[in-house]
Structures are given as C-alpha cells and as structure tokens.
Amino acid sequence: MASDLEIARMAMPAPIEEIAWKLGMGVEELLPFGRHIAKIAWPAISSRGGGSRGSLILVTSVHPTPFGEGKTVTTIGLNQGLNRLGKRATCVIREPSMGPVFGIKGGAAGGGNSQVLPMEEINLLFTGDIPSVTAAHNLCSALLDNHMHYGNELRVDPNRLFWPRVTDMNDRSLRNLAIGLGGVNNGVTREDRFDITAASEVMAILALASDYSDLRLRLGEIVVAQNEEGDPIKAEDIGAAGGMALILRNAFLPNLVQTLEGDPAFVHAGPFANIAHGNSSIIADRLALSAADYVVTEAGFGADMGAEKALHIKTPTSGIAPDCIVLNVTIRAMKLHGGAYSSGGGRRPDPAEVAAEDAEGARRGAASNLARHIQNMTRFGPPVVVSINRFDSDHESEIEAVVQEARAAGAREIVLFEGYQHGGAGGGALADAVVRAVQDHMAAGRPFEPLVDASHTVLEKTLRIATQMYGAASIDLSPRAEHDLQRLQRWGYDNLPVCMAKTQYSFSHEATQLGAPSGFNLPIGEYRLNAGAGFVVAICGSMMTMPGLPRRPAALDMDMDEDGELTGVFS
C-alpha cells in the first residue's frame, strides 16, 4: 500500500467552494486560503444559531501505545462511511501542533485512505491559528512584564506570577528559566517557564468560546498574577485582553477542508488532552451541526483523558451532549495491555512479537483496559460502539477474544473498521452501527449523566474523577496543591470544572502501569487556575506542560527538495 503522503498527493481534491456547497454554504460565506482551504466568515456562523441540529458522535479510544491507535483515521473514515450511506455528514478534528509533528507523531491529518486534505498544509502551520494563539498569549506575557517595569501601579507581586510564555514546539530546555538578566532596562529579573501552545489557556478559550463577545470576555478574565495584598490580577487589568482578541479575530473562525473522498471536514483548535481539555472548538461543532445530519468529533488520547473532558468541560459549556460514543481499539494495543510484549509499555515491541498470534494476551488486555473504558463511557448515557481498527497483523482468534470481552463489558455493538485500507467503504460497518445507535438513543431519550456537576468543589471533582474514572483509591495533595485550593476558595473559583493533566498512557499517573490499575493514590502536585477558560488544571504526578523531543525526532526524516516539495513522511 502507498504511503500516506503518496496517497494524499495522488488525490484530486475539489475546489473548496464545491465542498462548502455540500453543507449549504455559498461562496460569499467563505474566506479562501488557496483553492482547497477556507475559513467560514463570521456572518455565516452567526446566522446559523437557531433551528434543528444534527446528531453528535464522539470518537475516543483506549490508551494510546507507541504504535498509535488510529483515532483520527477512525473519525475521518466514519465521516466518509456516513456520506457513502447517503447521510449528510461531516467531521470536526483538532489542528496539528508543530511539537508532535516534528517530534514523535509526524502528522495528525489521518492516514491511508482516511485523510483530510491538503495534508501537507494542514500539518505545517495551516491557516496560522496556532501561531495566532502563541502571539496572543505572549502579548499578555509581554504586557505583564512591561507593567511591572513601568511603575507597577497594580502592585503585582513578582513572586506570584501565574502567566508563562508559550511556543509551539517541544523544547525541554524552556521548562524552567530565568529572564530579565540584562539589567534595569531589560525587564524584571525573575523565574519563568514556557508551556507548549496547545496547553495555553488562550487555546482553551479559543476552543470553548461561543462567539466574539464571549471570546473577548474570557480573555479579560484570565488571572495572570496576584497583587501584594493577595488579590487576583486579570488580563483586563493590565490592558491585554483587547489586543489578544484582535490577534485571534481570524483564528476564531473554523477551517473547512475535505476528506480524500470529497466529504466536508472542519479542523479547528488544537488543545492536547493530557495537559489541556483535548477537544476541537465548540463553534466548529455548532456550525457543523447546523449544516449536517451527523457530525463526528474527536477527543484526544484515551477515553479517560479527552472523552472525560469532553463530557465534563466541553458538554456543559456548549450544552450539546453526544448522541453516540465510538471507542476505538486495536488488537495490538490490547496485546500490549495484556502483557504480550517483552518491551512493556515503554517502547515499540519487536515486530515479530506484534505479528505472533496471542489470543489470550489480547483477551487479558480487553478484559482490563478496554472493559474499563467501556464501563466508564456507558455510565454517561450515550450508547457505546466499539470500533476495532484492523491491521494486517491481527489474527481472527485475537479479534474474537476482544469482541467477546467488549460485549461482556456492555458495548452496544462491536464492528471491524478498515478505513485505513479502504476509506469510506472500510468504514461502512461502523457507519451502520452508529446510525442505529443514534436512532435508538434518540428514541429512548436517556438523559446525559455526568459524574460531577457545578455543585461539587474542585476537590470533590478531582476525587470523583480519580476514583470513578481512573480506579484510584484516593488522591494525595502536595502542600502546594493544598495552598492552591485555599486560594481558589478565597477568590471564589472553587466550583469550576477540573481538567486533569495526567499521563495519556495509563489510568494511573505512571505511564508504565498498563491494563487497568486500581487502588493507587493519585498525587496532585498543584492546581492552576484557568479562569478565562472556565476550569482548573490539576497537575497529576510528574506531568509537564512542555514536552521534550524523543531521542530520534520525526524532524530528522523531513526535508524539502529543489522544487519546494516535502520529502520524508507524515505517519
């Protein structure tokens, strides 16, 4: 089979005007970026607020492994499959960050015959949304330091600054640093840190804001520091919110592209699910739901990460709960969680081990890891359809073992997905299952049932997620986390949702704990207030908000030829 890049280059994408027409949008509603990308103009978005809406399908996954589980492939392939059934469907996925693209992931536009186009542009800066988030965030950083340099009228405590700087690249050297070392004319000397842009509160605000007014209001509510009396200092107080909003004016508009099969697809916002809330934008979802009967959206990493945050942060903010949850799984991931590989969870196993038939290993993994994910998701109300993303190395006995365990755990249906190999045709079985599940769910009218609500405190929410989603026995708060909680209570933020920053590789805070660990105590190192985004981030274990590059970054295999064409692979 050809590589992802070769398949993308062989495609003949339609003009973006034709793709928009499939959603009932005219050329006057588009802001084109070349022939195959467009933003949707604000008047077109604001005029589509009322009326009926389509059904929302949330795609999530088991814990990711060193292989990658193909969640974005499943999202795109399901979209293509639904359109092949004659449904008006689209998907909404997140924008790729340069950190993973040049680090370990290599690309985030799907793969094989389930991709969005133009793949190279989407993976490389796209329409400039993420650079805009970086610029808006760092404008606030610069204005904060500038305020302290010129008199500090607000009496900002230089030892209580909460606002870091950001960059869209994995760079471990920027995790902790000192700035302002050039004397009195070059800023206040202090410690600082960089986060990756995907972890920025500005990125979260971009994804959660409902309109321009809400965007502007949320930016002003960002708490950047405290004053010498212990009161919060906000971005509005230092005059940063207006300029930040201007920088984000175009980034706030959703991006329209297409699949390999010419189906509409939106790509907008890019928060990570391990250190942020991990979901595409509310405004893109609402736009898609106003124009399509079925909208497939994707939550980052495993169901305990992106899906949990979709259901506890995004859904209450948007008021739109999913009508079906698709849980993506691979046989090789279940074998990993079932202890079939000598390498454990730290690195890719030997290809011979992956290819070796081990039905019992797959069963053990499914009976632990997959089963807990299914049980976690079913308790929220929507039906759960398990999609087995099939690979050539899978054996029938292994597939059957996973199917049996998924059925026993409460999955509504279990289907084989072959979208990588066959595009929409390979997503047909999943599309059929999703349509049935949505129709039955709508007829039954089962309510959405979150684990936490607005009445719970930050501590109660943390404890419920840790014990009821992760399997922890309890949580351990560091002295810093206890101090952070006291400050949240004093400032009136103690009932905000909680965004757990935790390893994506395990239910626990330890990446090597595979399967379904339980009975552990989850350490909480600190709480970070994201008042503008409307949640509190709980830093679990040793989780960092600035990733590092792997030993061999994907960037080392990428280059450009004399015609400006990319060489190397996105995979």
Task: Name some characteristics of this structure.
about 575 residues, alpha/beta, Rossmann fold, Domain 2, N(10)-formyltetrahydrofolate synthetase, Formyltetrahydrofolate synthetase, domain 3, 3 domains, 12-stranded mixed β-sheet, 4-stranded mixed β-sheet, 25 strands
How would you describe this protein?
With 571 residues, this protein is of the alpha/beta class. It folds into 3 domains: 4-47 and 63-127 and 251-444, 3-Layer(aba) Sandwich (Rossmann fold), CATH 3.40.50.300; 130-247, 2-Layer Sandwich (Domain 2, N(10)-formyltetrahydrofolate synthetase); 458-540, Formyltetrahydrofolate synthetase, domain 3. It is globular, with a radius of gyration of 23 Å.
